[in-house]
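WARN no homologs supplied; continuing
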Amino acid sequence: MAYATKRILKDEQVEQFERDGFLVVRGLLSPQETTAFRERFMTIQQDALDPQSTLRAYYAPKTLDEADGDVLKHFPRIMHPHRFDATSFDYMLDARFESVLCDLFGEEALAAQSMLYFKPPGARGQALHQDNFYLKVSPGNCLAAWVALDAADDQNGTLFVVPGSHKLDVLCPHAADLSKSFTTEEVDVPAGMEAVKVDLAAGDVLFFAGTLIHGSYPNVTRHRFRRAFICHYVPQSTLEMSSGYYPLHTFGGEKIERGHAQGGGPCGSEEWAAFQAGIEAQIQKNPGDAGAKASLEWLKKTAVA
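OK structure emitted
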């Protein structure tokens, strides 16, 4: 399907994306934009700590006392901030993202999701995974735009990617190590491949395919955040996807809905049972782990019986 925006990527950039499954566009956002964006999200986090805040209908961080030593309960990620925050909505539909996405998709793009990760000092990372395991975009694939709002390196938990893994099918995950990951699902690096780190400056944007294996490790610094604004997009030709990401948005702001993907994806009943047993074992070790409990509920709804 053709698209109307002017092509901005060079042929070698598109070729690199097709080969490796990811592409870094340096300095897509200005220093002034990233500073203002960081300040906006820190304000949201502080305002949402107020029990009377209307933000708590969308985002409810715990106080430091309530967090009981888990900094990610005080600074949890914000899911779908575009649904209540105009700044997030505007950036999700920013024309600069649209131009790159159209060049990579080869057709018009639709916005499916936004997220904000704070990743404060001491925070766990996110185990290696593939985004289309969750979005279930068909036909084709989803595509992420990962906007670095702080400089990101191996000390404060930048992303690691597995070049070429986007050419694989979506894999069935196993239970992750919750001492290192705040999410419960993990896939292994396939034989013959390796995970490589992507160092980013504030304002750089990492675009990557939904089947690319990627993740991050803990922030081991004492004073550095690794904040990132992340959006997921799908091609205009998408016929179905997971229902929790609707409505889609065109870059003109129009809401769209397509078919709802069904079934458990790549995991048959045997694999799902093993995965569920692993999460249940983690909950038994740590009965207060709300993240593992939420993943278990999600798994039970998603798995094929």
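The first strand starts at residue 22 and ends at 25.
OK
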